[in-house]
Queue: 2 jobs
Job 1
Amino acid sequence: MNALISTALSGVLLMFVGLFVRNRQHIKYFAIAAVLVAFVANLAEAATLQEGSRALYGMIEVSRFSILFNAVALGATLLYFLLSGSEFEKVGVHVADYFALVFFILSGITLASSFSNLLMLFLAIEIISIPQYILAGSDKRNLKSNEAALKYFLMGSFSTGILLMGIALIYGAAGTFNIRELALGSGALHPLVVSGIMLLIFALSFKVSAVPFHFWTPDVYDGSPTVFTSFMATVVKAGGFIAFLRLFHESFTSGAASEHWLLVLAIIAAGTLVLGNFTAVFQQSVKRMLAYSSIAQAGFMLLAVIALNETATQGIILYAAAYSVATIGMFAVLMKVKDYTFEGFNGLARKQPLLALAATVFLFSLAGIPLTAGFFAKYFVLAAAVQQGQLLWLVILAVICAAISVYYYFRVIIAMYFKAGEPEVMPFSAGFKAMLIVAIAIVIALGVYPGLLLQWM
Amino acid sequence: MLTVLLILIPLVTGLLTFGGKGSGPKVLGLVSSLASLAVVAGALFQFQSAPEGLQVTAAWIPQLGSTFSVGLDGMGLMLCLLTAIAFLLVFITIYNRDYERPGSFYGLMLLSQAGLVGVFTAYDALLFYVFWELALIPVYFLCSMWGGEKRVPVTFKFFIYTFTGSLLMLVGIIYLYLQSPDRSFSYASFTNLNLPAQEQSWLFWLLFVAFAIKMPIFPFHTWQPDTYEQSPTPVTMILSGVMVKMGLFGVLRWLLPVLPQGAFMWADVAIVLSVIGIVYASCIAMVQQDFKRLIAYSSIAHIGLMSAAIFANNEQSLQGIQVQMFNHGINIIGLWIVVEIIQQRLKVKNMEELGGIAQYAPRMAIFLVIIALANIALPLTNGFVGEFLMFSGLFQYNIWVMAVAGLGIILAAVYTLNMLQKVIFGESNSLTATTTDLQNTELVALSLIVIVILVLGVYPRPMLELVSSTTELVNSVF
């Protein structure tokens, strides 16, 4: 609850700050301070938390797990502000508004991690989505940015409709919105519930850009200002997954229910893995490659949703953290390179060794190489899926896809280290360097000792 | 404690070396490898008196039931000894060479040493996997930065090949872990699994493919000749001398004891593949003109024999393979050192352009002949002991297998002697007439190798005793 309140308040405050504070640096500092406050407030709640306590007439239930997830999301946002905060002012003049929108998204994410009512789920998804439509189009003079916003908005609102329809159907059968009391029972499911679950799967798959609902992703990620792509592809996506996981693990696991959706979701996951990885191989722009890689990574996170066990919940936390830190870092490096094609990275290692090293560590983590956070993230979701017992084919497929992903991630490394070139690089501050080193340290620390995060579960 | 030290020395010195300039990295590399060798020697003594002291266990990821558990048995010690000697030899040989960005070069070399020692000492499956990958990554960068013309695509192929294998192994490890009653990755709980035969049958392939790619055995070998050819020779020495032993070690430590029935069921297939590899690689080696590729194919043939011996799985073959792992490492590093010297002097590796080097570099010629003879397992050289034991083991398994594998010896003699003839004997030409004899560092490295070859050829008992405990262990699970 604390995180929800403080992020929502910060969002409102930041809109007013934009009116009175002209210095953009100060706005950034304010935003960083606000994330820190939210982070601390969120952790403070853990001390007094009573498991199973509910708020807002039982529509929200805060648990240790949701606090931990909020901490990961807020921590990743903090890193994002520190690494890329100064890029906000390059997008346009309304810097404070952009920060405010990010905070609204964050409040949606904190809601997604603790809802216990289908209406709250709907609210959370909408609060996450609407600011994104604006952020995608924030580079107003750029045609591609406008296209991205329009595309995202049209398709996003369509999927919202589907989500609402699914909720309505389930309500029609169960007579309640409370995810714990849907009482699906162990007998045969009401056809309304089955179609409701399917619609929910489709709508949420859209939000996390799973195949075949992914078509908006490359265009939106490519067209949006890079600094916002970085946020959308990481923290926001993790927020979508936490809603997915929470809903399906809490409500649709009992007896016959999982039979109906398990295979559908497994096929969606398989499609996401295959298509995301294979398409990423053929990209010429690193930014677009990262867009497809985010689809591919979503396939891995879907494994956790399907697996339905304790390992999966651990896995999703670790995956969210590992993936967010690495991708935010990778985008921060990308924004310092002028040319987004693979050739633009040629020879970066000689010119900017730290930038190249950081990119290498982040890409290792995304590829799941041991001693980086990404390895244990992948390990946990794979282990969860093996443990589930019926999905060994999917695990083998995922593993092959992970091997394919090495191909396109390493293309960047090859360009940076083994090819000659004169890359054009934007100037960056000592503070940026320091934050890159911190990000590298986080990736490696979680890779050597994942207990740092998991011990709080 | 010594075991941890063995991993820490190269790890720490490796990290220190990064960014070093001038001759600093060289010296540090040499000191580090000497220190590693001293620690291995210490561990050898402790192994005689109090072997339990070499086991170290510390908490790592309690949520998973994985511990940082390392230890040394006879086979582990033997391989750590090989690793320490190999890196020392490499560093001595290249002491007078200057590499671009020496800090990174020596740093990556030492990091790969840390990974290798980790693989040979890990007693926890997850830790084993982590080290397994860790040994690969520095090698990837070494080959891609300091290798030959086609280095980038070739090394990339190598990386993707091995990474795919490793990931399949990871799935196998996860499955085994989930079957263990106490949810632990420890060696003890893995070996006590006793899974039903049917599960062992498919799990075998998940693990075996990873090891087979690393060894490599036919038909998983296609990365190997290209990589050996394109890598800088010091890296090739490590790759062929030590790193391929990871695959053999993996089978001996993590496959046979964990999935004995799976290994038994597929033994015939594995042996047939290995034997095909022996004959096939030997035939290709006979027609190679490229010095480096010839040795690469000869290595596939030798590894094929070792892999066949593993699956023949009786006491003699297991003894033989372990002894041969060490001796093959020493011999092939010796061959690579000579290749490195010739290549560095004459800048060619095509054997047609060589010839008559014996007239100008007699000492080098003598060393090359001894090492080459050891490589084809002449009696009184170290290669003989291992090969004899392996063949006698294969003979007990199946006489026909042994007969076909035995062709490998004959073919090895053909291509090795042919190579000697073309490179050091025969007519000299204007190029080879410029050859100069060995420098001091090269002399030291080659002398050390020849001493090992002769001592272990005449008196192999210490080595056999060292590995006998592991042999009994592996053998007893059947």
Job 2
Amino acid sequence: MSIQLSNVAKHFGRTTALEPLDLEIGDGELVGLLGPSGSGKTTLLRIIAGLERADSGTIRFGERDVTRVHVRDRRIGFVFQHYALFRHMSVFDNVAFGLTVLPRRERPSRGEIRARVQRLLEMVRLEAFADRYPAQLSGGQQQRVSLARALALKPDVLLLDEPFGALDAKVRQDLRRWLRRLHDELNFTSVFVTHDQEEALELSDRVVVMSDGRIEQIDAPETLYRRPANRFVFEFLGDVNRLEGDVRDGQFVCGAARLAVDLDDGREELLLRPHELRLAEAPSERAHMPVCVTAVSPVGAEVRVELEADWLAEPWLATVRHADFERLAIRRGQRLFVEPHRWHRFDGAAARRVTAGAS
Amino acid sequence: MSRLAVLTGAASQRVLPGFGLSLGVTLLFVSLVLLLPMTSLVGQLSQLSPAQYWAIISEGRVVASYLVTLGGAAVASLINAVFGLLMAWVLVRYEFPGRRLLDALMDLPFALPTAVAGITLATLYSSNGWMGRLLAPLGIEIAYTWVGIALAMAFTSIPFVVRTVQPVLEDLPGEVDEAALTLGASDAKAFRRVILPHLWPALVTGTGLAFVRSLGEFGAVIFIAGNMPYETEITSLMIFVKLQEYDYVGASAIASVVLATSLVLLLALNLWQGRFIRRLHGGR
């Protein structure tokens, strides 16, 4: 079932939670709402669910206008960050709840409810836990119960509010993969909220980046990362190194640092991703940027190196391959030269992306 | 190793200091304030043979007072269960001007001397009082009937229900009722199947406490009860009457009935609630 929001806005008292916005989510899509806290992403999700009423605008599920439809009649499944399980009911009764509160005419028979709940519990791999109470389960298991409960009524739309936010990293990773698989199997439309860029980029078909109650960009994860629409998106989606200086005759100068750029004269700010920095023992023709290594963290696929220099206002972060790390024998206190092979520049006033240059 | 060494060894392993002193003071206090009076009560009773004891506590006027007291307390605690739950709900779930004031007012029955409450209620509901005057033409009499007794009992015991339900309700996240709604439950079903079962132990405990408190209420009730033998006399009044006749043993006998009833009720409540709470927190 597709979801269409048009001109949806929301105020809480005098503060604006959402500026009027439009959003279309296709049938069977898995969309992540990404943004820092206070960006309005949860409010938007709750408006789609019907837990919050928008001040203006319309919400359609497929052809159905649900703007004034009560949450209980919207045919949505909702997963809460802190699970919101019914603690006095067993896992089985939690999952069966939606079916048992149906009006008598529509309610399946007892046997059918039993069979359906059993199937759902198998799907979330908790069939052995049917008689347990929520307090006897781990966080990850509780969240799976809450998912099975939300799916019991075969909702048109599944909405998840920071579903993995309260779990530790390892469990989060497992559940993420598992949700993606479930989504591909059952093919429902889902929208989830997260403040974790990695989660959004890994899980979603498309990501909606929000800040201050506005949508900044809607795109597939790759596009979002490669071609951020503006500075906010660029900075939110990963680590950023900043460099401010003056351009004169095709040379960007900042203290002792020089970089050949293809820009007009004037004040400029360049942004660089950590993986776009190359480290070398000597300056090159195009770049002369002396730095000092202040910290090294060799954990993970790449080595993270922290760099400082008197021409830098704040330390830079560079990620280098383990091979390069060993070749240069990088250690703390070592003097090296940075050679950016890519940089980004945004128009100051509109924060629009202007150019990405290569050196 | 001697027993003493084992004991001191265990005590020295405790991280929190002051266990011996604080437990000692607690036990002393409990003995002086709770156990000593009760012991003297039992001591009084030892002067009676079982037959004499039975004769005192099964006398017609006293039995009638049991019924009046139990009936009044039952009605009062049922009313309190409903309205106490409602008040706790309003105080926890809504933000409105004057909420703190209302919250503070809830404790008034505890703070007010019960005799003051009794006199106030009696003047208000007697046939020429503010409320009594309005109700009398409708044929409703409150003062000097069992309705008045129940009313006075309800007044003094309402905080028990509100104050036991309130924290449990505060603990119940709003997400839980939202979850019920997203699953298609009507408001009534969400309340009955999700919220009420959560509050149930607290509500039963609060109502039970209110009931036990009503059983022993004296000051607030006697002014509005009218105290007609066999009709509107409460058990605490019977004890008082015996005392005025210098019949300390008789008074103790009746008091022991009230005491035993209250203790059994409180114990039953505790056992029952413990079982429920264990389930919520993970045990079986």
